[in-house]
Amino acid sequence: MEIKILLIGFNRLDQIKVVLEAIKNLSNSSKFVFIDGPRNDDDKLIQRDMVEWFLNYGIDKSQIIRPDRNLGINHSIPFAIDYVFNQDNANQILILEDDCVPSLEAIDLISQPLVQKCLDNGIVSLTNYFDYLTNRVNRGCITPIKIPTIWGWVVKKEVWKRIDIFKTYKNLPNIKDLLRGTNIIFNFFFVIKLLITKRFHHKLNKSWGTWDNYLGLSCRKEHIDCFVLPINGVSNIGYVGTNTASSISNRNFDRRRASLASQKQNLAISNEFIKIVYSSLLSITYFMWPTFKLMLFYVKSLFSIEKMKNKNYL
Fold this sequence. Notes:
By secondary structure, this protein is an alpha/beta fold. The chain is 46% helix and 17% strand.
């Protein structure tokens, strides 16, 4: 099965080289590179050199995507995904940001029948924060989660068609959709984070907020399922504390996984206990701290919104 890989980048050639090196031996794959448009003349010079390097590396000009103007991260990622689906007639895409180094073991699992079945109505994430729960001896547990973790994820064309990020953001899902598959701890932080972000997204003239919030909302509203693979398949080399050299994410490239070969034959959906434990842990690490920062932002902005508008509290 051929896999389309979309690399999302902006002016960070050194990092995207690392990502390309990690997947250079991946067979039966097509690689697309998206570079958001330049903001100024300096960006134009940097991106000219990037395009020249990609061409010399062997990436076809038709697979280098460049808008005429800078779209910003909230618009650029949906733009790039739409482009690949529309221009290349792709069935599914693996999306990687330019600092997300994937493991070939995780990419290899995407072709497994159970993962493909999950993708028929959902998004599958390669980022697994707690793979000690899901990477079991002789069994790999695919775990349903509330929203996709976005450091490496796969989506099929028919599922992507149902996602309308910005329309969904203007019209919040109803409470039943927001709390679908209820885990009270997860939902508490998830809802607070989204509501506060939504408020300031509009108050700051739509210049603030993150696209993954929009994606999460759309998945809830359209009843799109989200799953995480049994193993952690991404190391983020651009985000302090999550690279392979200094954190638990070095499990991505741990060759001691003797059970990995058998996992391909024994993939299963996690049981209810693992789902509850996983979503509770995810809510604490993925939502609790950002929620506290957003609440701090909310309190401070009541007194001086102008002083806060250039700060990113997500």
